[in-house]
Amino acid sequence: MAQHQHQQKQQQLENVLRSDFVWGYATAAAQIEGAWDRDGRGPSIWDTLAHAGGKIKDASTADEATRSYDFYKQDVALLKQLGVTAYRFSLSWSRIIPLGGRQDPVNQLGIQFYNNLIDELLANDIVPFVTLFHWDVPQALEDRYGGMLDQVQYTPDFVRFATLCFEQFGDRVKNWITYNEPGVFSLAGYAAGVHAPARSSDRSLNESGDSSTEPFIVGHTELVSHAIVVEIYRRQFKPVQGGQIGITLSGNWSEPWDAEDERDQAAAERTRQFDIAWFADPVYRTGDYPQCMRDQLGDRLPRFTTEQSKLVLGSSDFYGMNSYTSFYVKHRDSSPDINDHKGNVDILDHNKQGVRRGSQSDTYWLCTSPWGFRKLLNWIWQRYQVPIFVTENGTTVPGESKITHVTANSLHDTFRINFFTSYLDALAHAVAEDGVDVRAYFGWTFCDNWEWAAGYTDRFGVVFVDFDTPEKKRYVKKSAYVVCDIFNRLIK
Ligand code: PNW
Known about the structure:
By secondary structure, the chain is of the alpha/beta class.
C-alpha cells in the first residue's frame, strides 16, 4: 500500500515531445542474434562464459538466442508493425573481425549481415541507432592480453573495429553509440564477477581478478578508447557522413533513506556520483573523475593525462541514458570496504517511513519507480546540459519467467503496461514542466532474449518468444500497442 504514496494524480499530457522525437526498442547482438559460430563468426567472452557452465542461471547459452541472425527481416517487419521510428541494436565485434585485433582478417559475411539489416530498416523508414560495443569482447583479445585490462593493446584494436564500422556502415548509419554501460560492464564483469569475463577478488566465485582495482582500470580503458574513436569519427567521417556519436551510461536514481538527514542526503548524492558521474563527469563536465571517488579510492582510481582529459571532455554529442529503477540510500558510519563501488552506503528497498521504492518485478534489482526517473532526468539535465536520448528503459513482469509457452494471459502484461505508462508519463512531465531536453526513447527490449547471467529466465520483451520452438516464434504482448499509443499522444 505504502508504495502508492509515490503516485500523484497528474493530468494526461499531449503533444509535449518534439515533432522529431524518435522512439523504438533497443537490443544487443549477444542477446538476440544466435548463429554464434556461423559464417565465420569468432567467439566472444560471453560465448566462453556460457559454454564453460556454472555461471548462467538456467545453464543456457546464447548459441541460438532468438535467432535474429536468421529472422532479421521478420523482426524488422514486426518492429514496423509496432509503430517504431527507430531501432537500437549492437554489432557483434567478433562477427565482423573474428579474432578482434587490428591485424586480424575481416569477415565479409559479417559485414554483409549488418548491411542487410541496415538496408532492411531503412527500407521500412526505421532509423538505425548502432552500438559498437555491448559487452561482447572477442575472446581472442581476452586470451592475447586480457582485453580491456590492457589499455595500450586494447585501444588500437577497438579503434580499428570502430573505424571499419564507420567506413562500412556510416553512409547509412547516422547515430552511433560507442559503449553501452561501461559501468555495468566493469562492475558486473570485474567486481561482482557474475558477468563475462568473470573476474573478482572472491576466490569462491572466480579464479582470478581484483575487485578493488580492475573495474576502475577497465572503466578508464572504455572512457579513453571511446574518446579516441569519437575524435576520429568527428575528424574523418562526420564531415562527409554528417552523423552524431556518443556514449550510453547506466544509472538509477538514489534517494536518501531519511530525507531529513543530511548524512543520507550526502550519501545519496555520493552514490549518484559513483554510479553515474564516474563516467559522465569526465565526458560532459570536467574531464576528470568526481572528487568523492578520488577521496575514497585514492590511487586505485586511474588518472587521465592532460591530453586524455582534453580528449574525453566533450566527447559525446548526446547523453545516452539507460535507467530502470530507484533505490533508497543510507549513510554508513564505518570506513569504506576496499571492494566498495557505491560510496560506502547501504542500498535499501524501503525508506525510513517504510515506503517501498516500487513494485517488485521478476528481476531482483528492478522495481517500478517512475518517481525517481523524473528526478534522475532532472539531475542529469541540470548537471550535464546535453540533449538526453533514453537508450534503455523497461521491466520484467512478476511470474513471467515461469511461463514457457505462450498463453493469452502471458500476452496481457499489465505490470509492464503500468511500468511504461508511468515512466513515459514521468518523462513527459520532465519535458513539459521541468524543461528537460529529451529527444529519443528506446524501450528495453524488442523481444524476450538471452538476459546475460539470467539466461532465458528474465523476459524483458514487448514481444513474447517461445524458445522451445525451432523458429523461436514471436507473439506481440499488449504493452507494445500501449507504448505506441502513448507516443502517438505525446509526440507533436
Ligand atoms: C542493461 N542494474 O543492463 C543492459 O544494457 C542490457 O543488455 C540488459 O539486458 C538490460 O539492462 C536488463 O538487465 C543492466 O543493476 C544491468 O541497475 C543491471 C542494471 C542496469 C542495467
